[in-house]
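Sequence in, structure out. Go.
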Amino acid sequence: MTETIDWHEAYIGLGSNLDNPLLQIRSAAKVISGLDDIDECRLSPLYTSQPVGPQDQPDYINAVIRLKTRLSPLQLLKQLQAIENQHGRVRSIRWGARTLDLDLLLYDDLILNLPELTVPHPELKNRSFVLYPLADIAPEGLLIPGTASLSSLLAACPADGLQRLAT
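Output:
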């Protein structure tokens, strides 16, 4: 008997503010959609946002990808970290400038608290640059496990300079 591996829905946050951020986001989205055990990728519109943390860095380009995957959350995380590394990601300053940041935001309705991964992403509810692009591609009525509905989180999170790009 062959084992069937179920498909899971996941949302990935993408951010970049170094080395042609627009190209970094588009390239990462293409690489993610080409991974084995990934299907039905949908990229949100792109947004610009001010940096979180040190303000002496360029603005970010942000987006969210909705996808189906057969990878476990930790397998998906490892793939995302490999993509960050391929794009020249250097982890030196917390919330510092970066070529690429890929965050696993949601994975089905899973709540996971491991040393290397927390799902839903712990800052999701506070970040307009995640909530607004997420709302662009999420099904109506999406619930963030252990938190609230996406619509209620949006209502409580001002855009704070977030701008949707016309690209």
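Check: The mean pLDDT is 92. The chain has one domain: 8-164.
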